[in-house]
Amino acid sequence: MSRKIRWSLRILGWLLVAIALAPRWTRVDQGPGSDSSLTLGIPDSPLYVRETTVIHAGVANLPGEEEVKRHSHFEIASWSMLALIAGALLVSTANRRTGLALGLLLAGCAAPHSSPSDALFAEWNRPDSPGCALAVLRDGKIAYARGYGCANLEHSIPIGPHTVFDIGSTSKQFTAACIGLLVQDGKLAVTDDLRKYVPEIPDYGQTITLDHLLHHTSGLRDYLTLFSLAGIPSENLTGDDETLAMLARQKQLNFEPGTEFLYSNSGYFLLSVVVKRVSGKTLPEFARERIFEPLGMKETHIHDDHTLVVAHRATGYEPREHGGFGIDMSDFEQTGDGAVMTTVGDLARWDENFYTAQVGGQALLEFLRTRGTLANGKTLDYARGLGLGEKDGLAFESHGGSWAGYRAQLLRFPSKHTSFVCLCNLGSMDPSDLCWKVAALELGVELGPRPKTAPPAAAAAAAEPKLELTEEQRARWIGLYSCAELGVSYAIAQGLTVGIPGQKSLPLEVLAEDRLGVQGVELRLERDGFALDAGRVRDLHFVRVN
Known about the structure:
Lipocalin, alpha+beta, 6-stranded antiparallel β-sheet, Beta-lactamase, 9-stranded antiparallel β-sheet, 3 domains
């Protein structure tokens, strides 16, 4: 090769390398009350970093800030990578020693910043799987944030700190905060009768207060369970009207208000109705003006319009029986019990409010952290939109979320000023378990298994011997049954299968001569029909019509 050609290759190669490693100017949001500015983002690894992005853990007056990079291992700045490879090849052709140096540079670029917790997410950290975004929050800063897996499999979009997730029931703390702010405004009191604001709810002869709703002690049947029993799947379009109509048809409560704790999404949905009727603004509007905007949560909203285009939203998925994944999304438009869409970065801003009290002051924090108390004096571990507890001497605050193909957890250790956020777009993932494991690694303590809310019963049930009914006993069950409270009919066929609207016929398991079961639902035979128990719905009556 002539000297002239070698020099030409060197010049062209170094030019491509310079392009690949060149600094890029990136616009950075400095938070509310300040202008956007330009910062110099130098990609320290073209293999996995698109740009350097500054994420503020709180609002503008927080001490310091953290640079958080998009760390999905397949998040490739393709033009940079191609330029770097091409440049290296050209230079190495002209000079072997320089080529070796560039090879080492390429090897170094392939080693992304990592954390001991990364191994916990290895199962999903690939380009053909949904996954999650993780953030470790410490002392008002994002200490570590990374995406694992894909936000959208169809377009191979990786998950990063700015990916938007539906956080399901983790939303409840925002609804509770809105009620707390209205209490501060003097617009309502938590001791108020629910029917003062929502007269559509039947008079059960017992007062249901707003605090009963906040602490899940109202006795109201869970509307999501009612919808499921009525054959209304989450992909159907429903809103406030349909949900209120279902609750208004319920003829009885699960229990006397204040006497038990039973998680019910109905309570927090009804609180969204209360916010609207008291403030004159929908819950999404009220939360945006009083919480999200003051805290600079620009990537957060409450989703009450299923047609709304949401930038950077992850698609929800469920595993398919024979491999791969299927889309699992919801068109529900009712809010309060869920529907917050947000990012790990914005949840960092919300989390820091539990230390700065910028929104609502200390009064709001005390409001949210107030535990429920039953009529018998028992204190609950559930406060107002927050679960409180202690594990191995460390007090914690947390709330998980599960909706469609999304899962979420926000776990906080106030004494350590440290929190863990895990937002997932795969229904089979357990972000609560993952958060506890990451917490054990990051805090340097052995936290042991995360607290369980209820002991598993499936194994014991599976060990029980199967029962059989005689033909005479079986005949007592066969027939068509109607439920006015659900507005549907169930048909029990000769083979002891039950036909539920919107679902295939399901086989019934014999639990006793007068009890049948299917997928966690129990049917108890009565003189004129049967009563149904489904966890968060009790004593739902079906009447035989033939």
